[in-house]
Structures are given as structure tokens and as C-alpha cells.
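Task: sequence design from structure.
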């Protein structure tokens, strides 16, 4: 009898609790169920995500998916250069160019970092159900640090912080237009020429690849985009981003398309679509990092501003233990794990710059690797762990 009473009380408590958990996370459960086959992609390599030596083995055997550039700026010839000139998707690493342009304008006296902007104006660039949690977390972080003033206004310097610390897409798009698309395009051309694609507004990119908005299937939309020139795709992205801001009828149609479930496509289709986004040559990106570390990017003041924003990881105790200085920018999205970093090891005192780009990873392998931030651990250890560096160099250098 007591057992029956206990079971009754337990079920009375557990069923509503489990039901509420399922209800609050129903989109996640449905997404996992619908993508269960994709989550098995690369399963034979998942065990490699449990050790950095295993990850090096994966990189060595999959040059199609990975580029690694890592070197001491005082001895670049002894560095690691694995698929160094293969242009790969940047993802939010492209935010570094908005940061550099911001630093250029501030150092030139063209922009006051104390200038106030509206959080609502930044939020207007967010698409429904596209990295909404990132935006909420970025705003929450500002409020926790008392950076939000009356009228929901923040300093432009804090908008930059949202973009860098939280990879916030709305802040990135806002800054793209605030700083001037032409300025950013010219900056990228001056720094990398044809080796680096200029970043594009995220809102326009996502509208462009969303098959629901275009009333077609993911496969058909991907084929249509693939048949166009890169210039035509860029023009379309720019037009969509501007229309989303300035044409209310267009904005409402976009919102209706995204509101149910964002892009609303499978992990495998999302993997293909991200392959359409702006790309960069890893060595060209590393060269920019070297200029930053030497204090020679545009000016000493501009380099210092960029370094200050990128050095947010130094707030971590683990980073402080292993680095005299460390700065980084990372990205993590379906099939893509990217990072650029620069740092000085506490142990070796060498000044390293690095660019590591993983793209088009098998979805299941990406899911396991991203869950433990293994790419970030790998990059950090490459700087302060000579044994891992030599292992990587031996495996990845022809």
C-alpha cells in the first residue's frame, strides 16, 4: 500500500515536470528526431573527439575539411601550414573586420566610442529564431554590467563588445551599416585583396538561403544559388538586408517565414547553405593577426583597440594560468568550427598567431566536437604546449 502511495505521489510530480521540460524544449526534441540520421554522420570518428592527439589524426586524414596555420611571429618559417591557402567559410570570424574598421575610425578621430545607440535599433537586425539566445545573452550581460542606460541605450563601444564577445549577429549587422559597407569592403580589399571576401549582413545571408521564404525546397534553393555568380549572390544578399530594414511589407513577409522555426531546414541542408557564406584564405587572416600583435595594423592605437576587444578570454582563470597574453575570436555553427587567436605562452614566451578553420564537417562528428569546445582547447594548447605543437607539426607538415 505504501509503495502504491509512493508511486502515486511520484507520478503526480514527475509527469507534469517531464511534460513541462518537453514542452519548453519541444523544438530541440523535434529537431534531434528529424535529424537523427545526420547525427550519425562521421560516427566512426567520434572517438577522436576525446583526445587532442586523435583530433590531430582526424585533421591529417581530412584536409578537405580543415586548415591550420600556426607560427611564432619571430620564426614564421618553422610554423605549421596545413591547407594554408584554401579559402574557407569565415562565419563570425568576419566580425574582426567590423572591429578593425571601428578601431580605424576611433583612432582617426572619426568616431566617438561614447556615442549612444539604441538597443532597439540593434534588435531590429535580428531575424526571428536565428540565434535569438545569443542576442538575449548579450543584452543580459550588458545589463548585469550596468552598461544599459535610460531609453535602452548603450555606447557604440558596447555594441562592438556584443559582436565580439557573443558573436551577436544583430550587433554585427548594425555595425556593418553604422560604420559603412563601403568602408568595410575597402578595408578588406586593402588587407587581403581577393584572398578574403568582405563580410556581408547576416540578415541578408539568412533570407537568401531560406527555402521557405522563396517558396521552394532546400535542395532547389541550393541549386539555384550555386548556379549564380558570387557577385550576383552578394547583390541579392545586400538587397534583402536593406529591404528588411526599410520595407515594412517585406519585413513582415520575412518575419512570417522565419517565425515558426528559423531556417526550418535539416542539419545537412544547413551545412550546405553555410558553404555559400563569405570565405577567407587562412594565411591572409594570420598575416592580419601578426600585424595586430606587432602593433602595426593601421596604427599602434588601432592595433591596441582591436587587441583589447579580442582579449576577453583573459577573464578566465585557466587562460591566465597559461598565457601572459591571449586574444581570440571563435565561431561554432552546424558543420563549422573556426577560430583565430594570438597569444604569448607563459612557459615559452613565444608570440604565436593562429587560424584554424573546420568546415563542412560531418554533422555527428561536429556535434560531439563542438559540445566540448575541443577546437578552442586545441588552439590554446598549440601555443603553450610544445609537445602538442611538435605532434601537430610532424603530422601536418609535408
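Answer:
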Amino acid at each position: 500500500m505504501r509503495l502504491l502511495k509512493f508511486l502515486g505521489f511520484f507520478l503526480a510530480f514527475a509527469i507534469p515536470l517531464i511534460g513541462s521540460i518537453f514542452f519548453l524544449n519541444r523544438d530541440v526534441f523535434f529537431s534531434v528526431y528529424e535529424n537523427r540520421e545526420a547525427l550519425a554522420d562521421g560516427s566512426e570518428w567520434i572517438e577522436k573527439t576525446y583526445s587532442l592527439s586523435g583530433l590531430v589524426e582526424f585533421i591529417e586524414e581530412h584536409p578537405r575539411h580543415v586548415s591550420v596555420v600556426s607560427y611564432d611571429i619571430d620564426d614564421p618559417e618553422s610554423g605549421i601550414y596545413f591547407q594554408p591557402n584554401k579559402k574557407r567559410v569565415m562565419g563570425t570570424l568576419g566580425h574582426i573586420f567590423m572591429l578593425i574598421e571601428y578601431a580605424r575610425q576611433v583612432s582617426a578621430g572619426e568616431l566617438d566610442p561614447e556615442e549612444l545607440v539604441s538597443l532597439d535599433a540593434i534588435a531590429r537586425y535580428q531575424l526571428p529564431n536565428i540565434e535569438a539566445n545569443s542576442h538575449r545573452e548579450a543584452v543580459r550581460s550588458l545589463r548585469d554590467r550596468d552598461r544599459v542606460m535610460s531609453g535602452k541605450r548603450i555606447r557604440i563601444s558596447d555594441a562592438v563588445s556584443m559582436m565580439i564577445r557573443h558573436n551577436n549577429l544583430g550587433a554585427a549587422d548594425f555595425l556593418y551599416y553604422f560604420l559603412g559597407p563601403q568602408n568595410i569592403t575597402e578595408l578588406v580589399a586593402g588587407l587581403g585583396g581577393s584572398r578574403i571576401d568582405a563580410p556581408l549582413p547576416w540578415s541578408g545571408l539568412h533570407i537568401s538561403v531560406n527555402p521557405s521564404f522563396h517558396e521552394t525546397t532546400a535542395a532547389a534553393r541550393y541549386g539555384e544559388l550555386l548556379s549564380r555568380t558570387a557577385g550576383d549572390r552578394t547583390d541579392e544578399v545586400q538587397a534583402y538586408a536593406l529591404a528588411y530594414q526599410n520595407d515594412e511589407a517585406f519585413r513582415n513577409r520575412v518575419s512570417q517565414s522565419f517565425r515558426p522555426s528559423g531556417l526550418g531546414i535539416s542539419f545537412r541542408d544547413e551545412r550546405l547553405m553555410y558553404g555559400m557564406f563569405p570565405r577567407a584564405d587562412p594565411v591572409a587572416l594570420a598575416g592580419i593577426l601578426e600585424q595586430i600583435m606587432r602593433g602595426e595594423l593601421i596604427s599602434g592605437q588601432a592595433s591596441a583597440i582591436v587587441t583589447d576587444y579580442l582579449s576577453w578570454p583573459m577573464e578566465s582563470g585557466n587562460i591566465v594560468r597559461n598565457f601572459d597574453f591571449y586574444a581570440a575570436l571563435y565561431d561554432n555553427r552546424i558543420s563549422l568550427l573556426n577560430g583565430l587567436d594570438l597569444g604569448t605562452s607563459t612557459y615559452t614566451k613565444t608570440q604565436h598567431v593562429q587560424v584554424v578553420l573546420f568546415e563542412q564537417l560531418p554533422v555527428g562528428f561536429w556535434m560531439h566536437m563542438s559540445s566540448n569546445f575541443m577546437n578552442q582547447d586545441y588552439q590554446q594548447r598549440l601555443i603553450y604546449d610544445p609537445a602538442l605543437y611538435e605532434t601537430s607539426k610532424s603530422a601536418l607538415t609535408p
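The CA atoms of residues 49 and 369 lie 6 Å apart.
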